[in-house]
Amino acid sequence: MRPHRLWITAFGSFPGEEEIDFDALAEAGLFLIHGPTGAGKTTVLDALCYALYGRVPGRRDNAKSLRCDHAPPGRGPSVALEVTLRGRRLRITRSPAWQRPKLRGEGTTRENERALVQELTPSGEWSGLTTRVDEAGDLIGTLLGMNADQFFQVAMLPQGDFARFLRADGEDRRRVLERLFSVKVYAGAESWLADRRTEAHREQQALRTEVDFAVKRIEEAAGPELLALIEEEPDPEDPLGWAAALEALAADAEDRAGRDGDGVTETVRLTRTALERGTALADRRRRHAEALVRERALEETAQERADLEAVLAEAARADRVLPMIRAAEQREETATKAHRMAADAVARTLPLAENAEALDPRATTEGDAVRPGVEVSSERLTAMALERREEITRLEELRAQEPLLLRAVQERETLVGQIAELGDRQKETDARLTVLPGLRREAEVKLAAARLDAARIPAAEAVRDAAQARLRAAKERDGLATALEEARRHLAVALQAVPDHDNGDEACTRELLVAREREHGRLLAGLEGLRGDEARLTELARLLAELDAEITEAAEREKSLTARCAELPARLAEVAARLTEAGDRAAEIPEARARADAASVALDAARRRDGLRADLETARARLTEAVDLAQRLRDRHQDLRQARIDGMAAELAAKLVPGEPCAVCGSPEHPHPAARSGQAPTAEDERAAQDAYDAAADQRGKAETTVATLTSRLEEALAIAGETPVEEAREALDEVRRALALLAEVAGTRAVLQEEAERVTAELDEARAGAEDAARLLARSRARQEEWRAEQDRLTARLDEARGTDPTVQARRERLTLEAALFAAAAEAAGRAAELAAAHREAAEETDVETEQAVRELARAREVLAALTESARAESALAEEAERTATEQAGLEELSRELAVTLAAGRTREERLAEDVERLTALLDGARGEDPTLADRIDRLADEAGLLTEAVEATRLERTATAELAAARVAAAAAAVEAGFSGVEDAKAAVRPSTEQEEKAERLRGLERERAAVAALLADPELVAASAEPEPDLDGLRAARDAAETAQAGLLSAANQAKARLARLVTLRAELAGCLDLWRPARRRHRVAESLAALTGGTSGDNRWKMRLSAYVLGERLRQVVDSANERLDRMSGGRYLLEHGLGRTAGDRSRSGGGLGLRIVDGWTGNDRDPATLSGGESFITSLALALGLADVVSAEAGGVELGALFIDEGFGTLDEETLDGVLDILDGLRDGGRAVGIVSHVTELRARVPAQLRVNKGRRGSTVEVSVP
Questions:
Q1: 954: which of 266, 282, 342, 443 fits an S-S bond (Cβ 3.0–4.6 Å)?
Q2: Alpha carbon of 238 to those of 1066, 1080, 1083: distances in Å?
C-alpha cells in the first residue's frame, strides 16, 4: 500500500479543501507531521484511514459527525485518496453522512454516506469500479489483505494503545489480539467439540435407556413362569444370550399347547355334526305337520275360486266393448258443441241482414235428448259477405287521396308561417337601415382620436422612468439611514455585552475588540488539549457505574447459581425415579393389550350371537314361506297338467284342417271334432306353471342354505362368547381398556421425563460452570474498579487546576467561547456601522428629492401613461367597428331586395294550395258516409264480412258432427251384442276397474299357489320319511356339543397365548439387538468426543498448561510478535532490554482463556526479569514502539506478506533523551528500506531540525490548513 495524494474537504478540523502530496514527502523517506495541539495532525491520519475503510481509529469512530464545524453550510465532507494497492493505481473518494441544508424551505436533511472507487487504466483514464459503500470496503480489504483494525495497528502505530497493551493483563491482551488475529476457527472447534461431547453423552445415555427398556419388555413378555425356569441374569453389556434362552423356552411351551389342542378338535366336530342332523330332522317333521293343516284349510276355498274366475271372464269381455262406447260418448259431446257454436255465429249476423226472415232458427228432438238446431241460408250469408268485400275494394282505392290532402294542408300551413316570418324580417331590415349611417360616422371619429393618443405614449413612458429612478434613489438613501441607525444600536448593545466595558470609553475601537478576541482564542486553544481528559473522566464515570452494576449483578448471579447448584440434584433424583416408574408401566402394556384384544373379540362374538339368533329366526320363517310357496306352485302345475290332458282331444281338434289327415286316426274327414271348454289350459299355461314352480324351488334351496350358514356362524359365536350378555362383555372390555389407557398414559410420559432429566442435567452443568465464571468475573471486575478509580482521581486533580475559578473546565471553555464570540460580534458590528455610514453619505450626495414627492410624481406619470395606453389599445377595436358598420349597411340593403321577391312568390303558392284542399275534402267526405273516417268505414265492413264467413263455416261443421254421432252409436251397439251382452247398458254394467280386476286375479293366483305348495310338501319324500321317524333329543345333543367346545376353547386360548408370547419374544429380541447395535457405536463416539473436548478445553490431564486451544494459538502469535520486537528493542535499548513471552497465566488471571499471553522485561544489566509496569516513560516508549513494529511485521505476514509503502507513528518521542532518540531514529530510518515512507507525528522541536521533510498543520479561528515543506 503506497499513498500518492490525499484530498480533504470539510473533514475533521479542515473546513476547506486541502491537498497532501505523499509522493513528495516519500522522496525523503522520513517525514514529520507537526502543528499546534488540536490543529488536526491526527485528523490527517483519520482521513487516510476513512478513505480506505470508511472508519477512523479508536473512539473517534463513534462521533456523530466527521464534518468540520467551520465549513460553510452547503459544503459536504469528503476525502479522496490516490493510492497504489498490489500494483493497481486507485482513486478512492468517500463522503461520510452529514446534515445538509434543505434545498427548499428551512432546516436540514440527512445526506447518506457515499463512496466511489476508480482505477487508472493503461490509457491514462480513470475507470469506475464501484459506487457502493459495502463493495468499496470489500475491494480495499481484499487488496490490502487485512481488516480495518489490523491496518490501524500496523500502519498507524498508536503509541498510547501499545503502552496500555504492554501493561495490560492477559484478558485485555486477548481482546486486542483477537481483533488482529482471527481465532474463530479454533474457538469454534472448542465449542463444537464441547457441544459434540454433550450431544454424544445424551445420545449414548438415551440409547442405553432404550437397551434397558428392551430388557424390561422381554421380562414382562416372558412372564414369571419362564423367568423361573432360567437361572442367569441378563448381561448388561450383551443380554442377547439371556433373551435367546427365554425364546427357546417359549417355543417349547407353544409346541406342547398345540399338541394338546389337536385331540379335542375331532370331538367338537362329531358333536356338531350330530346336533346338525337332529335339528334338520326336527325341522322336517314340523314342516310336514304344518302342510297337513294347510291342506284342510284350502279345501274350503273351492267356491270362492269359481266366483272369481266368472267375474274376471265377464270383465274381460266388457273391456273389449268399452272403447267403442266411449267413442260414441265423445262424438255426442262434439256434436252438441258444434250446434251451440253454429247458433252463436248466426245470432251475431242478425243485425246485418236486410230481411230477417232469411234466417229460420228452430229446435229438433231425437229420442229423449234435446239439442239446439239452426238451419241457415248459407247462400244469403255468402252474398252479404261478398258485397262488403267489394265495397272495401272501392274504398281502398280512395284512400290514396288522403295523403295528398294531408300534405296539401301541411304545406299550406307551413307556407303561411313563412310568409309571416318574411314580413317581420322585412320590417326589421328597414328599421336597421335607418340608423346605420349615423353609427358609422361616430366610429370613424373615435378611431382618429385613438391613433393620436398612441403617438403620445413614448413621451409618457420617458417621464415615468425618470420618476421611478428618483424614487429608487430616495428609498435606497432612506434604507441606508435606517440600517445605519440599527447598526449603531446593535453596536451599542454589543459593546454593553463585552466584559469590563465602560460606556463612556470611546477608545474601545474595532482593533481593540479584535485583539481581545485573539487573546480568548489563545486561552481556548489551551483548554482544547484537555478534552481528551474530560472525555476519559466522563467515560470513567460511566464505566465505573456500569462496573458497579456488573459487580452487583455478578455477586447476585454467583449467589443464585450456587443456590441453584444445591437445588438441582434433588430435582434430578426425583425425575429419575419417575422415569423408572414409567418404564415399569410400559413393560406391562403388552399383556394389557392382549387382554383388551381378547375382551374385544368376546364382545364382537356376543353381538354376533344375538344378531345371528334374530337373523336365524327370520331365515327360518322365510324358509317356511319358500317351502309353502314351492308346494303350492307344484300343486298348481300338477292340476294344470291334468286339466290339459283332459282337454287334449279339443286341443288336437283345433289343429285339424279340412282335407288334411288327422294326427291321431289319419282320416282326412272330421265329422265331429271335439269342442274346447271355456276354461281348458293351454301348453303356455303349463309351461308358465312349471317355470313358477322351478323359481320357487330355487328360492327354497337358497333359504335352506341361508339357515344352515347362519346356524354354523351362531355356533362359532357361541363357542367364543358363550351365553355372556353383551352388556357384561362391554363392561369387561371397557375395564380392560381403561387399565390399558392408564398404563399407556403413564408410559407415554417417558419421553417427557427423559427430556426433563436431560434438561435438569444440562441446567446443573450450566449452573456449575456459570458459578465458576461469575466468581472469576467478580474478581476481575473488582481489580479493574480499583485501577479506574485511581485514574479518575488523577484526571480530576488535573482538570480542577485547569478550570480556575469556573465550576468546571467546560464552563470555563463555554465562558471564554461566549466572551470571544461577544468580542467578535462587537468588532463585526463596529465594522458594519462604518461601512453603512460611508454608503449613506454617498447616497445623500446623489439625490435631494424627498421620498413622498418622488412617489407623487411617479403616480401622476403612471396615470397619464395608463390613460394613453388604454386609448391606444382601443384603436384596433374601433377600426373593426367602423368597417363592420359599413359592411352591415351594404348587406342589409341587398337582403331587403331579396325578401320582397320571396314574399310575392310565397303568396301565389298559398292560393293554389287552398284550392286543392277544398276539392279533396269534398271527395273523401262523400265516400266515408256516416263513419268518422274512411279507414273506420273499411274496418267496419271487414269485421262484418268476417262475421258472415264465420257463420257459414259454423253451420257446415254442425252438419258434419251430427252425421258422425249417428255412426258411432250404431257401432257401439253392434260391438256389445257381438261380445254377448244384450246392449250397451248391459256392457257398461259388466265393466270393472283395473285395480279391482288385479286384486281378484291376485287373490285367485294366491289360492292356486298355496294349494300347489301344500301338495308339494305332502309329496316330498324327505318330509314323509321324517314324519315316520321318532322325535330327536336336541337338548342332549346341544349339551354334548357345548361341553366339547368349552374344552376346545380353553386349550385354544392356551395355545394362542403361548404362540403370541413366542412371537412377542422373537420381536423383542430383534429390538434388543437393534438397540445394542445403536448404543455400542454411540458409546465409542462419546469416549472420543469427551477426550478431545477436554484436551482443547484445557481440562485434560494431557494438557500440560491447562490452556484452551484458542488461547494457545493467540499465545503463539504473541511469541512471534515478541521475537520480531526484540530485534529492534535490543538496538534501541543498547542491548539492555528484551521482551519475554510466558505460557503461564498473568497475575490475577484464573480463566482458561487468558493463559499463554504473559509478557516480562528481561534486564540484561541485572539478569532479572521485570514487570513492564516498572519501566520509565522513555523505556516504555521504545518497548512499545518495538512491540508495535513487531506486531506490524506479524500482521503483514499473516495478511499474505502485504507490503506497506507508508508507516505513521503517533507521539511519544518527547520522553526520549538525545542518545535514545538517535537510536530510535536509526531504527525508523531502517524502515525506509524498499522505498517505504515513515511519517512521525510529534511536538518535539528537535525533530523539526532532524527531519527536513515536513507536513505542517496550521490552526486558525476559521479552521485548520496544511502545508507541505520538502527540501
A1: 342
A2: 17, 10, 14
Q: What is the pLDDT of residues 570-602, one digit of tens each?
A: 777 777 777 667 766 666 676 677 677 777 877
Query: What does the buried/exposed string (b/e) look like for 964-989 if buried means 16 or more CB atoms within 10 Å of the residue's CB?
Result: bbeebbeebbebbeebebeebeebee
Using alpha carbons, list the distances in angstroms from residue 593 to 219, 279, 724: 16, 40, 21
Strand partners, 1160: 1140
C-alpha cell read off for 400: 290514396
**For the domain 1-145+1205-1271, what is the CATH code?**
3.40.50.300
Query: Bridge-partner residues for 361, per DSSP?
Result: 374
CB 1207 within 8 A of CB 1238: yes
Q: Which long-range contacts (CB under 8 A, 24 or more apart) does 963-969 make?
A: 964/331, 964/334, 964/335, 965/328, 965/331, 965/332, 965/334, 965/335, 967/331, 968/324, 968/327, 968/328, 968/330, 968/331, 968/332, 969/328, 969/331
pTM of the shown model = 0.37
Q: Parallel, antiparallel, or unpaired: how do β-strands 1206-1210 and 1237-1241 relate? A: parallel
Q: How crowded is the C-beta side of 431, counted as CA atoms within 13 Å?
A: 6
| Per-residue confidence (pLDDT) for residue 8, from 0 to 100 | 95
How many C-beta neighbours within 10 Å does residue 754 have? 19
- Checking if the pLDDT of 92 tops 90, the result is yes
Rounded to whole angstroms, the Cα distance separating 1209 from 1192 reads 12
End-to-end CA, the chain = 25
Count of CB atoms situated within 10 Å of the CB of 1230: 12
1237-1241 and 30-34: which strand pairing? parallel
Count of CB atoms situated within 10 Å of the CB of 382: 13
Beta bridge partners of 1221: none
- Rounded CA separation 793/770 (Å): 34
C-alpha to C-alpha distances, 932 to 375, 388, 392, 943, 946, nearest whole angstrom = 37, 18, 16, 16, 21
3-state secondary structure of 19: strand
Cα dist. 150→44, 146, 686 in Å?
Answer: 19, 6, 121
- Residue-wise pLDDT for 713-746, tens only, equals 777 777 777 778 878 878 887 887 787 788 777 7
CB distance 37 to 529 below 8 Å: yes
Could you give the angle at the alpha carbon of 698 between the alpha carbons of 694 and 702, nearest 5°?
170
Q: How many Cα atoms are found within 13 Å in the side-chain-facing hemisphere of 238?
A: 1
Burial of 1017 (0-12, 13-18, 19+ CB in 10 A): buried
- Length, in residues, of the chain: 1271
Determine how many CB atoms are found less than 10 A away from the CB of residue 931.
15
Task: Give the integer Cα–Cα distance in Å for 792 and 539.
Answer: 10
Distance, CA of 88 to CA of 86 (rounded, Å)? 6
Task: Using only the alpha carbons of the chain, give its radius of gyration.
Answer: 68
In whole angstroms, what is the distance from residue 1199 CA to residue 1237 CA?
20
> Crossing angle, helix 875-928 and helix 934-978, to 10 degrees?
50
SS3 132: coil
Strands 98-101 and 108-111: antiparallel
pLDDT at 684: 78
Report the C-alpha gap between 553 and 559 in whole angstroms. 10
453: cell is 393618443
- C-alpha cell of residue 505: 470609553
Mean pLDDT for the stretch of residues 369-385: 60
The set of residues, in sequence order, having a beta carbon less than 8 Å from that of 275 and lying 6+ positions away, is: 1034, 1037, 1038, 1040, 1041
- In sequence order, the 6+-apart residues with CB closer than 8 A to the CB of 773 are none
User: What is the rounded CA–CA span in Å between residue 5 and residue 25?
Assistant: 10
| Alpha carbon distance 148, 13 (integer Å) | 22
